[in-house]
Amino acid sequence: MFKNIAILIVSTCFFITGGAALAEDKPEVDVSKKGFSFFMGLGGSIVHYQETTRSFPIKSDVLASNMILNSGALYALDEDYLFSVENMSTFYPGNATESWNATSTFTVGANTYNRGLLQQNNFSLSQSNTILMLHKRIDGGWFVMAGPNFATNAFRRNAFVAVSGVAISNSTIEESASEILANLGIGFESEQLRNSPTHYSFSLTAGLPVWRRLQNTDVPDVVFSSTDGYDIALEGRYSWALRKDAHVGLWGRLSSSIRGSQTIGAAELPDTRLDTANFGLDLLWKL
């Protein structure tokens, strides 16, 4: 894992600093018309979340939907470098039903649990991602990109109902995770919105957690810090001109976040997988 992080960081530094000498020899160009700002006026997300414990053959599964907000901007630093900032956050988390299933028969004390549904509960999730990216041109509209992602996830579970045996809790359980990821990717960017009839971009990025802190109210004295795992995301947008300096368009993002387990004393953080589909209607402008 540390080798992968080192490779990612070295690659980031290389493309940021590499080629700087070549850029110094190029004549300056007017980049004042490039770039844009954007705000998503209407958006949503579909979230599929799973947990798999290692101490017992138990797996959770939930599908939820949320309203989200997305805003940001793209700046042209010079002819070959762009800088982007983007923030995606849950505006109104939806309520969903989470199911916990035994993947095989197991025994705890005098109780034996058969394969199948064990319990259900209410579930809600709030997400926030602030992504900073430096883009370096490699050919035409193609860029390599790198930068940090500051992410938080907050889960809330309550109203546990046992289907088999006894529910794990009768209270509300909350879990919050904060992390920093190092992202590296490739994408295409048409760059100019002002005086252009259309604008379009897409990217594929991968991220490795380099710092993480997670707490759960069920074990309030334990802080999990494992950075085992990775993210991968595919994002794109397409817009049409309303006037010379404003566009309306569509935006979408598919992402998967995989995290490994960690055990501290008797407390276990399970393996998790979070798949998210974000989509929305964008308003973009370049004044």
Specify the number of helices. 2
Sheet of most strands: 11 strands, antiparallel
Proportion of beta-strand residues: over 45%
Kindly state the number of beta strands: 15
Provide the succession of SSEs: HHEEEEEEEEEEEEEEE
Name the helicity range. under 10%
Brief summary of the model shown:
7% of the residues lie in helices and 67% in strands.
Please tell me about this protein's structure.
The chain is mainly β and 287 residues long. It has one domain (2-29, 41-285): OMPT-like (Lipocalin), CATH 2.40.128. Helix content is 7%, strand content 67%. It is built from two helices and 15 strands. A hairpin with a 5-residue loop joins strand 1 (36-52) and strand 2. The radius of gyration is 22 Å and the shape is elongated. The relative contact order is 0.18.
Keywords, please?
elongated; 2 helices; 67% strand; mainly beta; 287 residues; eleven-stranded antiparallel sheet
Describe the secondary-structure layout.
Layout: H1 2-17, H2 20-24, E1 36-52, E2 58-76, E3 81-93, E4 96-102, E5 106-108, E6 111-113, E7 116-139, E8 142-162, E9 173-189, E10 198-216, E11 229-243, E12 246-259, E13 262-264, E14 267-269, E15 271-285
Antiparallel strand pairs: 1-2, 1-15, 2-3, 2-4, 3-7, 4-7, 5-6, 7-8, 8-9, 9-10, 10-11, 11-12, 12-15, 13-14
